[in-house]
Amino acid sequence: MKYIKYSKYVASPFEELSAEDLLQLLEDYLLDSGFYRQYYHFYEMDPEQAERTLEQLHQALLEAMRDRGMIPDELLQQLLENADSYDRSKLRQAIDRLLEKLQEEGYVTIEQPQPLSEQRTEPHPGGWGGREGKVKFEVTDKALDFLGYKTLKDLLASLGKASFGRHDTREWATGIESHGATRPYEFGDTMNLDVNATLLAAIQRAGLTMPLDLDYPDLRVRQCEYQSSCATVLMLDCSHSMILYGEDRFTPAKKVALALTHLIRTQFPGDSLHMVLFHDSAEEIPFSELARVKVGPYYTNTREGLRLAERILARQKKDMRQIIMITDGKPSALTLDDGRIYKNAFGLDPLVVSETLHEVARCRRNGILINTFMLASDYGLVNFVQKVTEICRGKAYFTTPYTLGQYLLMDYMQKKVKHIH
User: Fold this and answer.
1) How far apart are CA 222 and CA 214, in angstroms?
2) Are strands 320-327 and 369-374 parallel, antiparallel or unpaired?
3) Cis peptide leading into 184, omega within 30 of 0?
4) Are 360 and 391 in contact (CB under 8 A)?
5) Residue of 360, 370, 364, 371 whose CA lies nearest to 397
6) What residues have CB less than 8 Å from 387, skipping those under 6 apart?
7) Nearest by Cα to 324 from 383, 264, 241
8) 123: how many CB neighbours lie within 10 A of its CB?
């Protein structure tokens, strides 16, 4: 007699992973700053090595799942000892399907978008097997937006706040949200009419008669808090010091930039945000390039970064204009009038410091506020940042990579120091 044995279906843990779960696993790899490669020919960087391949993405996902305990170490070790065995294993096929899910949902784009099963080649000698190394991928804007949302959500959770508003100022205006007293209507005001105050003014003037005699001077409008718009340039220091001393300071700065971008896009649509990298020189980058930015063998040309930020803000017609500067090092480079770059990494060079402070003073004269987030606490640097704060009347935060996002978001949302017009 033929028997059929039924058993309980146990789903693969990989099948329950969404594309968003995969992005969270790959977050550190996608936002890599070069910290883990600083001792491997850092000054001889090959541009081709900076490009990321699908095989590297496969390896990064495998390592992330192993670190989270999703793949037993013993099983992975056995498979990787034999490249052919791993290349034919169900684990390899499962990782491939997860990468296909990322591509199908628009989080990564692949130069050769044919099915992953058609891209198999001979196993690599390093033991990872699998995919042709020249098949490259790019992180999409959708993926960056999700990473920004996740970082912002984590930072707000650490702040203990579930919601946030607009930039409140000391000024009053007529608008939709009523928070203040009423006043007589003036030409050009929003007709946010206070009916009770208007009728009372008419009665006080003409008495209680029917029909009620309502005249122009009787109109009363409600006041609300004036909510200003702000133009911000986020200056990121990508000099070599951002990954020195055994600490990666650049990756947290990139995460904060993504979170600030998502915050402004969703909660402050009237604001503008631009990104400036400063090192030996300075350049503006689009946010789509932020994930690929890495630190380099660079000095710190703070003045050139301020100059570029000033030119960007000069085009913005906003109530407030500000520069948020994230750095951990002293200014050590200066662009001379003839275009040459003067460099001095030993101590605070008097020429570099004086020219940088002159640029800070120019920002102050142009009505630009500078808030500095310093990721170091050396005595000389503290004095320099305090001088910058004194000149531009901004704020200075001496923080760490772990608390940088909390301080920056609190500063942006609360705006305790405000300069209107």
Assistant:
1) 18
2) parallel
3) no
4) yes
5) 371
6) 357
7) 264
8) 17
Exposed/middle/buried for residue 63 (C-beta within 10 Å: 0-12, 13-18, 19+): middle
Please give the residue that has the higher pLDDT: either 330 or 6: 330
What gap in Å lies between CA 58 and CA 154, rounded to an integer?
Answer: 26
Domain ranges of the chain: 19-138, 173-226, 228-414
Report the length, in residues, of the chain: 421
Q: How far apart are the first and last CA of the chain?
A: 91
Rg (CA), the chain: 28
Higher pLDDT, 185 or 285: 285
Q: What percent of the chain has pLDDT above 70?
A: 74
- pTM for this prediction: 0.66
pLDDT digits (tens, 9 = 90+) for 39-57: 433 333 344 445 677 888 8
Does 228-414 carry CATH code 1.10.150.80? no
Residue 361 has pLDDT above 80, yes or no: yes
Token pair for residue 75? 């099983």
Task: Give the span between the Cα atoms of 290 and 37, in whole angstroms.
Answer: 18
3-state SS track over the chain? CCCCCCCCCCCCCCCCCCHHHHHHHCHHHHCCCCHHHCCCCHHHCCHHHHCCEHHHHHHHHHHHHHHCCCCCHHHHHHHHHCHHHHHCCHHHHHHHHHHHHHHHCCCEEECCCCCHHHHECCCCCCCCCCECCCCEEEECHHHHHHHHHHHHHHHHHHHCCCCCCCCEEEEEECCCCCCCCEEECCCCCCCCECHHHHHHHHHHHHCCCCCCCCCHHHCEEECEEEECCEEEEEEEECCHHHHCCCCCCHHHHHHHHHHHHHHHHHHCCCCEEEEEEECCCEEEECHHHHHHCCCCCCCCCHHHHHHHHHHHHHCCCCCEEEEEEEECCCCCEEECCCCCEEECCCCCCHHHHHHHHHHHHHHHHCCCEEEEEECCCCHHHHHHHHHHHHHHCCEEEECCCCCHHHHHHHHHHHCCCCCCC
CA atoms within 13 A on the CB side of 121: 11
